[in-house]
TrEMBL record, chains A, B:
<dbReference type="GO" id="GO:0003677">
    <property type="term" value="F:DNA binding"/>
</dbReference>
<dbReference type="GO" id="GO:0003700">
    <property type="term" value="F:DNA-binding transcription factor activity"/>
</dbReference>
<protein>
    <submittedName>
        <fullName>GntR family transcriptional regulator</fullName>
    </submittedName>
</protein>
<dbReference type="InterPro" id="IPR000524">
    <property type="entry name" value="Tscrpt_reg_HTH_GntR"/>
</dbReference>
<feature type="domain" description="HTH gntR-type">
    <location>
        <begin position="6"/>
        <end position="74"/>
    </location>
</feature>
<keyword id="KW-0805">Transcription regulation</keyword>
<dbReference type="GO" id="GO:0045892">
    <property type="term" value="P:negative regulation of DNA-templated transcription"/>
</dbReference>
<dbReference type="InterPro" id="IPR036388">
    <property type="entry name" value="WH-like_DNA-bd_sf"/>
</dbReference>
<keyword id="KW-0238">DNA-binding</keyword>
<dbReference type="Pfam" id="PF00392">
    <property type="entry name" value="GntR"/>
</dbReference>
<dbReference type="Pfam" id="PF07702">
    <property type="entry name" value="UTRA"/>
</dbReference>
<dbReference type="InterPro" id="IPR036390">
    <property type="entry name" value="WH_DNA-bd_sf"/>
</dbReference>
<dbReference type="InterPro" id="IPR028978">
    <property type="entry name" value="Chorismate_lyase_/UTRA_dom_sf"/>
</dbReference>
<dbReference type="InterPro" id="IPR050679">
    <property type="entry name" value="Bact_HTH_transcr_reg"/>
</dbReference>
<dbReference type="InterPro" id="IPR011663">
    <property type="entry name" value="UTRA"/>
</dbReference>
<keyword id="KW-0804">Transcription</keyword>
DNA sequence: TAGTGGTCTAGACCACGGA
DNA sequence: CCGTGGTCTAGACCACTAA
């Protein structure tokens, strides 16, 4: 956070973190109390608290009012996948807009968008390419709004959440992903220059506004020989 | 974080968050300065800073020293997948330990574990079942340590990171996931009670210690008709 | 009762940015 | 120059926990 790492509170946090990371303080054990640290460093309590706050936020410590601070057990339960559009889940990819049209929603599409079957939906079809060739087909759906032409430029270069947010003139609140495996259909395989029946990743993304209403849906199929998703899990939020 | 939501700093944060969420403060705009909030609420600067700190940590605001606080643009780039073992990526699953044995590492396994081919590796094979039947096969590998019998009880109920950490007597630092799509092999399909050539999710997990050394590797194949991974992306870390 | 963390105050000095 | 946020102080009162 701070550019200068020379702050005293920062030093307090580093020292405590070091004790935790080297096993001098084990999960479940009590960390030094605030007053002990005030004493040890010869600084004021608020400064000590600022340092401890970094470790609490980072998941290293948790506090029990009336008792003290305890060392938290590391946990690797949350996988984080970097889905920045320009890097396409960690890899550089060239995005090409193939087609924009409108379709009438069938039952499944209507269910996803929480609208009625027969509703008019805007559809965008994109291809993602790496140097080796086509990697994925992405099909994105937005509610159709007449009199609001979308700029193809934007469609091609902005990521889906941004397009959907601008299209609906709202702020996005949440995005939900579903990741599965499918066999490529004939047309999909053709577009991806491979054989039908090849295994592919299928990544669906549903966008919601603050009211929990769906703003857009996308379905992407990826040649699994050219692309795998990667994610990491860290026990701590690195802040110190 | 705090049990009582009646703290003044908490109120400051809530009020600012409300302004951001309702569009009264737009991304890129400058938030009220600390001194303005001191004035407006009639409280001291440190209390104001505590409130603002919640929003900064939550990703609502960022500070530019010498200038002020700005409203951050919401970003949905980080997908979070809850991989708690007992819920198996969000779904309840019965885990059965099928076999524990030792194998000699072939080239690919040796590469994953960063050891030499021919090295002895401990292998655990598990099956995951839902009410509908078998869902996934999980094969886990740990470096073999003689004289350290693993308790089958633990193997069955503890999650892989915990087993690996205890086995190697270290603290885990990181876990890396690779998610792809594969076609089920004959034996896999048989164990999963389906046909060879069915599409399946393949989730690999590599565990590292603090020195970046691999501590364990697992490969799981999941019937995609019975299981899909789900993840969410939130623009903000909810703290207020 | 003594110790803990949670909240809050009213100051202070600093580095940085912009007019 | 003044306003901004970043750091730090030396107190205070509170609710809670444990002995």
């Amino acid at each position: 956070m701070s550019a200068r790492m020379t702050a005293i509170y920062y030093r307090v946090a580093e020292d405590l973190k070091e004790k935790i990371m080297t096993g001098k303080l084990l999960p479940g054990e009590m960390a030094p109390s605030e007053s002990q640290l005030v004493e040890a460093y010869g600084i004021s309590r608020m400064t000590v608290r600022q340092g401890i706050g970094l470790l609490v936020d980072g998941g290293y410590l948790y506090s029990v009012p009336g008792k003290g601070y305890y060392v938290a057990a590391p946990n690797l339960d949350k996988i984080i996948i970097d889905a920045s559009q320009d890097r396409f889940f960690g890899q550089k990819m060239k995005v090409t807009l193939k087609k924009v049209d409108v379709v009438t929603a069938d039952d499944t599409l209507a269910a996803k968008m929480e609208t009625r079957a027969g509703e008019i939906i805007l559809r965008m079809q994109l291809t993602l390419n790496s140097r080796e060739g086509p990697v994925a087909l992405d099909c994105r759906y937005l509610p159709y709004r007449k009199g609001e032409p979308l700029l193809e430029n934007e469609l091609q270069y902005a990521d889906f959440p941004h397009i959907a947010a601008r299209h609906s003139k709202v702020v996005l609140a949440r995005s939900q992903f579903t990741i599965g495996a499918v066999l490529l259909a004939v047309e999909e395989a053709k577009a991806l220059e491979t054989e039908p029946g090849t295994a592919a990743l299928c990544i669906e993304q549903l966008l919601f506004d603050r009211g929990g209403k769906p703003l857009g849906w996308s379905r992407m199929v990826c040649r699994s020989d050219r692309y795998v998703m990667t994610g990491v899990a860290y026990p701590y939020a690195e802040r110190v």
